[in-house]
Specification:
There is one protein chain. By secondary structure, the protein is an alpha/beta fold. The chain has a domain at 7-68 and 113-173 and 265-344: FAD/NAD(P)-binding domain (3-Layer(bba) Sandwich). It is built from 10 helices and 22 strands. The strands form 4 sheets. Strands 6, 7, 14, 15, 16, 17, 18, 19 and 22 form a 9-stranded mixed sheet that branches. The chain has a 6-stranded mixed sheet with strand order 9-3-2-13-21-20. A 4-stranded mixed sheet has the order 1-12-11-10, with no helix packed on it. Helix 1 links the parallel strand 2 and strand 3 (37-40). The longest helix is centred in the last third of the chain and has 29 residues, at 320-348. Bound molecules: flavin-adenine dinucleotide (FAD). Flavin-adenine dinucleotide binds at residues 15-21, 40-43, 53, 55-56, 132-133, 164-167, 183, 185, 220, 262, 281-283, 289, 292-296, 298.
Length: 388
């Protein structure tokens, strides 16, 4: 580090200008708190457009994005109902928006459209893009972050560093459970039209989700890594055949986009806060994508942190006691979401006959029991607010 490197002054430095980091920046601004916020990101600004994910955003997430003027209504396809079933076994249920009393159970939006709507609200000079964080030095009343951008080194003096840089690497600070599953993603054209219905189909390989997006379905095809290798290598026609076999014959699939894949693991950071540092979004917890909880949980992290920072002056930003209150307040939501997704993956991703029977009975019970359906739907629509 060179002492001659220019120093940028800010109150809050957000590392990672992904959807969660940008939501935090906008929520702090909307709160009216007189705090200066800078973001930095490893990627070039605008490169989120190429991300292959389509995210199911809950009704609660829409309610958080709207006041930030970051809800891109035109890019979201509403989900009217969700059909849940298991392949090769009995039992199914359908959750509908009418029964839950909401305009939509959720909305499917491409990651790129979500990120673009957020980025449009953030000034160019607030973001240092194509940067890597080299180190953080803790001083008595601030931190100095050293950042490299090409051949330049910047030093950023901040009262608080918020880590929103996405899925953490393996380290002693992170508990990891590898699902030995990969998600293969594609957009496919259904016949007949999807009618705003989402499908969650549990197979012994892992969950298969179809989310309506525009006229197509965004497919999340979860399989063991060797099967993901095979799905990625197939011709389009062979991929559509494989999808059809896994899904069954309720719909036909006639065309597909190129595919992408993501390895899946549960990653939970042991501590959410340290002196003058806090972790949110995927940097705090990375979940299995089943039932679409990850971003919906991350935006609640951002919202809660912004609400806690609103009454603090710049000197109090890094107080461990204050940050601990944030960390303690997030535990129920994050562990609830992790248990919910982990429980679904572990109990459904196998072919054991007794479990298959139990799952079938569970789906029949869910279909017959409105309060149970309301509980499951509430988790998708509101997250932990459902039972708080
Ligand atoms: C297949 C799949 C399907 C999913 N479906 C859903 C769904 O339906 N609903 C849902 O709610 N969630 C879903 N998720 C989860 C969702 O994608 C994440 O929870 C969400 O993207 C987290 O946002 P984030 O901003 O925390 O992290 P990210 O989206 O990972 O963004 C992190 C940002 O930090 C930047 N960065 C990374 N490293 C550094 C660094 N060292 N320095 C600076 N910047 C850095 C990156 O460039 C990026 O801009 C899914 C995930 C997968 C894999």
């Amino acid at each position: 580090m060179t002492e001659a490197a220019p120093v940028i002054e800010t109150d809050i430095l957000i590392v990672g200008a992904g959807p969660v980091g940008m939501t935090l920046a906008l929520a702090i601004r909307a709160s009216g708190a007189p705090l200066r916020v800078r973001l930095l990101d490893a990627r070039k600004r605008g490169s989120h457009a190429g991300d292959p994910r389509a995210l199911a955003l809950s009704h609660g997430t829409r309610q958080l994005l709207e006041p930030l003027n970051a809800w891109n209504a035109a890019a979201g396809t509403p989900i009217h109902d969700i059909h849940v079933s298991q392949s090769g076994g009995f039992g199914r249920t359908v959750i509908t928006r009418e029964e839950q009393g909401v305009p939509a159970l959720g909305y499917v939006m491409r990651y790129g459209d979500l990120a673009a709507a957020l980025a449009a609200r953030i000034a160019d000079d607030q973001v240092l893009d194509e940067c890597s964080l080299h180190g953080i030095e803790l001083r008595r009343d601030h931190v100095i972050a050293t950042v490299e951008r090409g051949t330049d080194t910047h030093r950023i003096r901040a009262g608080l560093v918020v880590h929103a840089e996405g899925t953490p690497a393996d380290s002693a600070d992170v508990r990891v459970a590898d699902y030995r599953q990969h998600a293969v993603l594609a957009e496919v054209r259904p016949q007949p039209a999807h009618g705003n219905r989402a499908w969650e189909r549990f197979t012994p390989d892992g969950p298969l989700a179809l989310l309506p997006i525009g006229n197509d379905y965004s497919v999340v095809f979860t399989v063991p890594p060797h099967k993901a290798d095979a799905l990625m290598a197939m011709s389009d026609a062979a991929f559509l055949d494989a999808l059809q076999r896994q899904f069954g014959n309720r719909l036909k699939f006639t065309a597909t986009s190129p595919r992408a894949r993501f390895p899946l693991a549960l990653r939970l950071r042991r501590e959410l806060v340290a002196e003058r540092e806090v972790w949110i979004g995927n940097a705090a917890q990375t979940l299995h994508p089943v039932s679409g909880q990850g971003f919906n949980l991350g935006i609640r992290d951002a919202w809660e942190l912004a609400s806690q920072l609103v009454n603090r002056d710049a000197d109090m930003l890094g107080s461990v006691a204050e940050l601990d209150r944030y960390g303690a307040g997030r535990q129920l939501d994050r562990f609830g979401s992790a248990l919910f997704t982990d429980g679904i993956v572990r109990s459904f991703s196998n072919n054991l006959l007794p479990l298959k029977l139990a799952r079938g009975l569970g789906l029949i019970a869910l279909d017959a029991c409105k309060p149970a359906r309301k509980f499951v739907a509430g988790r998708m629509i509101w997250g932990a607010r459902n039972w708080l």
